[in-house]
Amino acid sequence: MGYKLKTLLWLAVVAAANLxxxxxxxxxxxxxxxxxxxxxxxxxEGDNLSRIAEHNAVYGDGxxxxxxxxxxxxxxxxxxxxxxxxxxxxPRNLSQVEIDAASSYAKKxxxxxxxxxxxxxxxxxxxx
Length: 128
Known about the structure:
The protein has 128 residues and is mainly alpha-helical. Helices cover 43% and strands 6% of the residues. It contains five helices and two strands. The chain has a two-stranded antiparallel sheet with strand order 1-2. 18% of the residues are buried.
């Protein structure tokens, strides 16, 4: 069984298991998800925001992790400090400006000196 099929099956199991608690992961498809619908993702051991964003059912692009970070500042002060069991909001119906800003920031962040990362994270979070 291929990696993508295993991942899709795993996401289906997670979604089915969480239906009762409203932690549903919606697959991105050709149909538009209503602007007021936010999906959720439950963090598991070994996850990071980039891996979560890479899931096809999330964004299919690891560089979009800042979108998840920005939507979850009530739970995350540092994008690198996820804890298993955390339930993260996955925002949908994003503008191209938001997507471009997130991708640009994700590509720029690894080259930032450690002592400036927090400052740049705050700048990204405050920018609209």
